[in-house]
Amino acid sequence: MYDILIIGGGPAGLTAAIYAARAGKTVAVLERETPGGQIVSAPLVENYPGILSISGAELAQKMTEQAKLLGAEFLFTEAAGLSKTQDGFLVSCADDALEAKTVILATGASHRKLGLSQEDTLTGCGISYCAVCDGAFYEGADVAVVGGGDTALQDALFLANTCRSVTLIHRRDTFRASAQLVRRAQAQENIRILRNCTVQKLLLSDDSLQGAELLNSKTGETERIYIEGLFVAVGQMPQSAPFQDAVATENGYYLAGEDTKTCLPGIFAAGDGRKKQVRQLTTAVSDGAAAALAACRLLDAQQGISE
pLDDT (tens digit, 9 = 90+) per residue, 30-70? Predict the structure, then answer.
């Protein structure tokens, strides 16, 4: 039986593993794919404190190596469920079941995609799902944002500060975003708003993004826009389905505060899968540290160890 079982090997899970292993606990990380989560696809990370520039893949590799050197075990399998036992918890996997005294849910969330041909190929090379992360790479460029919620409007306003022009593409006539954000976007001179439009096709030149073909659902007309960057802000999909019977969620996001404690004692939630306002690399790392320390405190208390 592990002291701490971490489900998910993204930045939150890897940080939790580092902290828990350094505290002398037996730790295992369950990851169904390559450790690192969404950060692996980032060509450059330039907003992580203390590191001027590093690829997402290299940063994930360094975090994984650090966790392993400290004694964390990595199990490449997919968790399928979670249940309470007399001594802790049982996590069912694709081909096995694992026992742990505490569990950290660091399952993350995946960005909703447009479902276009070449979208995956161009991710990190013209297509981004995070304006705050990648906006600096498009200073002075023409870009577009797809979406109609608060995130899309905030992204458009953020990019308008440094980009030459921003085209905001929304599939409906009205926005889900707050009226204040819509008014601000409408008042911004270098933001062009296209309503009732969807991206039908990505335009490439020498394997790089050159533009996009749009379809107006009301008129049936198509339009081509020429851009260097396309920022997709059409929502995220939390990866919490196997655990929603065990802990409380809202719209798929784990209900846990800054202390990362869920409604079930001994289960903690960290990273993008937790309900919160800001989802960035640094906030995921912060969650991972908080969850590991909270789990360690609970284990020590159970063993009668005072701080």
Answer: 998 889 888 887 777 888 999 999 988 899 999 999 999 99
Active-site residue, from 3, 95, 120, 134? 134
Nearest to 31 by CA among 72, 86, 1, 69: 72
Mean pLDDT across 149-159:
93
At residue 302, what are phi and psi to the nearest 5 degrees? -65, -30
Pairing state of beta strands 79-84 and 89-93? antiparallel
209: number of CA atoms within 13 Å, CB side?
A: 31
* Catalytic site residue from 133, 163, 197, 296: 133
Decide if 48 contacts 282 (C-beta within 8 A). yes
Of 93, 120, 130, 150, which one is the catalytic site residue?
130
Mean pLDDT value of segment 213-234: 96
Name residue 243's amino acid: F
Q: What is the pLDDT of residues 66-124, one digit of tens each?
A: 999 999 999 999 999 999 999 999 999 988 899 999 999 999 988 899 999 999 889 88
Phi-psi region of 67 (alpha: psi -120 to 50; beta: other; left: phi over 0): alpha
Residues 154 and 184: their CA atoms lie apart, in Å, by 10
> CA 264, 266, 272, 275: dihedral to nearest 10 degrees?
30
* Catalytic residue list contains 93: no
- The structure's pTM equals 0.77
Q: Are 129 and 233 in contact (CB under 8 A)?
A: yes
Residue found by looking up tokens 């990370």 in the block: 45
Residue 27, strand partner residues:
4
The Cα 289–Cα 283 span in angstroms is 10
Q: Which of 61, 51, 78 is nearest to 11 (CA)?
A: 61
